[in-house]
Write a structure and sequence with these properties.
About 25% of the residues lie in helices and about 25% in strands. The protein has about 210 residues and is an alpha+beta fold. Bound molecules: nickel (II) ion.
């Protein structure tokens, strides 16, 4: 999932993509790439290849930057998701900054990487919530999507251990968004046909301008 707030796209991180190829940042597929429509297969081997895939997915997601990524978005149709909502770190000193000409402070965030392998949605609530979603595969585009407000999720970790947890808020929304990717569904597929066409046309225009 993409972040709604415009992030500071530091040039350094862009450059590192060119010079430090060993960082294993993978290419993120974008609409209308047909590979995004693939149904992802369950993970059966909890091995080093899986660990490498997950490490690369985090690297790719942090670089983008985004808060969630499904393996299929980097062209690997396996049921693997990474999420990091990167909450504010209340213990850290605010960092002074003047990147837009005004002196202000940023509260550093702390990384909270979470891996979801073979995730299942168990008890979506009747209650719905609306979130302005974005997606690294639909760059720069945002739209309001309605989803169950609370869910119970079951998933496996990198060692194949099963976990189960009740979730709400942004984590519930983000996990549902990422789980949609496993079925070949993008957030724009939840919109009316008219709205979806508008988003895709806007993206097309943006790409031509770039
Ligand atoms: Ni997405």
């Amino acid at each position: 999932m993409g972040l709604h707030q415009p992030q500071h796209r530091h040039l350094a991180s862009r450059r590192s993509r060119d010079y430090l190829t060993q960082m294993a940042i993978r290419e993120i597929l974008e609409v209308p790439d047909p590979r995004l429509k693939q149904i992802s297969a369950p993970v059966t081997q909890f091995d080093d290849d899986l660990r490498t895939l997950v490490a690369d997915m985090f690297e790719t997601m942090y670089d983008a930057p985004g808060i969630g990524l499904a393996a299929v978005q980097v062209g690997v149709p396996l049921r693997v998701l990474v999420i990091d909502l990167q909450p504010d770190d209340p213990d850290a000193e605010p960092v002074p900054c003047a990147h837009d000409g005004h002196h202000h402070h940023h509260q550093p965030t702390k990384r909270e990487p979470q891996v979801f392998i073979n995730p299942e949605l168990l008890e979506p609530s009747e209650e719905r919530t609306i979130y302005n979603e974005g997606c690294l595969s639909v760059p720069e585009m945002y739209a309001e999507v309605v989803r169950p407000a609370r869910i119970r999720a079951r998933w496996q970790d990198l060692d194949g251990q099963t976990h189960e947890e009740d979730m709400d808020g942004l984590l519930a929304t983000c996990l549902q968004h990422e789980m949609d990717h496993l079925e070949g569904i993008l957030f724009i597929d939840h919109l009316s046909r008219l709205k979806r066409t508008m988003v895709l046309k806007k993206l097309e225009k943006l790409r031509r301008a770039a």
